[in-house]
Amino acid sequence: MPELPEVEVTRLSFAGAIAGGKVVSARLGKPLRWPLGVPVEQLVGQTVRGVRRRGKYLLIDLTEGLLLMHLGMSGSVVFGHGLPVAGAHDHFDLKTDRGTLRLNDPRRFGAVVFATAESDPVAQKLLGKLGVEPLGDDFRLDSFRSGLAGRKTAIKQVLLAGDIVVGVGNIYASEALFLSGIRPTSKANRLSRPRVERLHQAIRDVLSRAVEKGGCTLRDFSDANGDAGYFQLEAMVYARAGQPCKICAAEVRQIRQGQRSTFFCPKCQKP
DNA sequence: CACGGATCCTGATGGC
DNA sequence: TGCCATCAGGATCCGT
User: Fold this and answer.
1) Which of A104, A130, A178, A263 is deepest in the core (most CB within 10 A)?
2) DSSP strand E in chain A: where?
3) Is the pTM of this model over 0.85?
């Protein structure tokens, strides 16, 4: 469910409300991808300073340390007072006097990890190799180009790897490549300068537009207040195999790359 | 060190 | 209705 826009929309939906909240209790459900790292009692009494995002991680700053939360493939967050009794897929609750933050994640590819600081090796193991933020000033065309120059793999795979630029997941990778007219199978290091420039711009455009629209709701995305996003209405190629391209009417194709589905228009996107 | 593949887990969906 | 195979928004780990 969550690529950068969904994570950012989620963050925006509860960051203001939880800030300043004092942790009353916390509970863990079934194990997530990694152990929390501290007993939940250690969180009690701490104050939530604020919530940031790095790539697809939510960083929940506490008085002493921070929680790194990842939504994996199927994670979502709810925040509020008087939440229902935790269900089978509610694997983390952080109850504060401003409301309870709850992570629901059926597949449990997500994670909640405690680190004493962002520089803590525990945090750096997760954040250390991440690429630049696509919507920030650090996402420069020249460094993007030199990053791609070192990769012989398909451009789609490079985008997903997240070590050059973060936040582009399976949906937005297909969409950004469509917008820039690049075949997903093209080798990253063979893209011409103008094509890299178009891709650079397309990544920014597609992600920022999705954030504005409130995230993607392809299956079941909703933010911490339960509000759904609308990106699905705008997908140009994702999940549209066999349907006509919205620009040229050619049939949208679906292929597999690294066990993930890729969608593209064979006419609009040149190898 | 860059690459491709296997892997974690549960639920939805479609074919028979 | 049941059973089985396939697929799903992510990212790490491991062998080459």
Assistant:
1) A178
2) 23-28, 48-54, 57-62, 66-70, 76-80, 90-96, 99-104, 111-115, 253-257, 260-264
3) yes
